[in-house]
């Protein structure tokens, strides 16, 4: 995999090729009626990638690595730095190294879009390591080893860049992070055939790749402007209960997982690998607090204990069986509720 060549500077243009000018995106502060610049948004709803089986080819697509962590945005204002989760929660205190690195990028004011990660000994991002550094699900301890890989820039020095095409935003981002050191790094664009790129990513044990359409503005939600291709499928499923284990009486044998279909939970199988004994015991204590006599799915087996779907598990799997169950699932960790992870939704017509 090789880094793509640096592109020549491009003028800041809007979609209609006119010079970039500030716009009235929201009412101005009445105490500053002659403010010349775009106000910094308090929060930007993130652009989300649509899952694809194969990467599209063509010069209009930019590709980089899919990082395995928490999606964050870093807001650097003149007097402070804020780090927000995908759901809009302030996690600045959880990522002190990233906050310090953002402050050192001043005096610019900006909003960076990226992923907070912890790297393993091979330099790969690892969701489990990130969770452990934070103290587990809902943990509040600072993740001193966490880094941010930045892949987009929504605001810079009084200009809202969201109407610019990604190629222009990317060029400005590269300039901003050209001399950055420490806990904020540029997610490198990789100039290689995307089919070969995903093969290399999978061979290296990475999660996958992300493609971004060079000509599109920054739009929230799943618009198709960004796509993702995964080496292994990974989704979030609700934990609906657990299977008792004679080998580990204070733990469990497996977790019972559910997805959503038409607003109702559907059982999609169990997962019994991916967690250590200590992790299983701690999770059992959390699940026992969620035991219920009115489960969303009723299990006939006496060894299966139903719980309210209050915990969301991140699961790797290799596909689906003919009867609608996960194939070769593996537990990766619990999602923090402030991360705004959505439970996987099945199409209404799925079996």
Automatic annotation (TrEMBL):
PROSITE patterns tied to this protein: DNA_LIGASE_A3
Keyword entries, A-Z: Ligase
Enzyme kind, highest EC tier: ligase
Sequence segments annotated as region (Disordered): 1-38
GO MF terms, alphabetically ordered: ligase activity
Top-level taxon of the source organism: Bacteria
Keyword Amino-acid biosynthesis: no
Catalytic reaction annotation: ATP + (deoxyribonucleotide)n-3'-hydroxyl + 5'-phospho-(deoxyribonucleotide)m = (deoxyribonucleotide)n+m + AMP + diphosphate
Enzyme Commission number, as recorded: 6.5.1.1
Domain ATP-dependent DNA ligase family profile: 148-264
One Pfam family this sequence matches: DNA_ligase_A_C
NCBIfam families reported in the protein's UniProt record: NHEJ_ligase_lig (TIGR02779)
Stated family: Belongs to the ATP-dependent DNA ligase family.
Record-given protein name: DNA ligase (ATP)
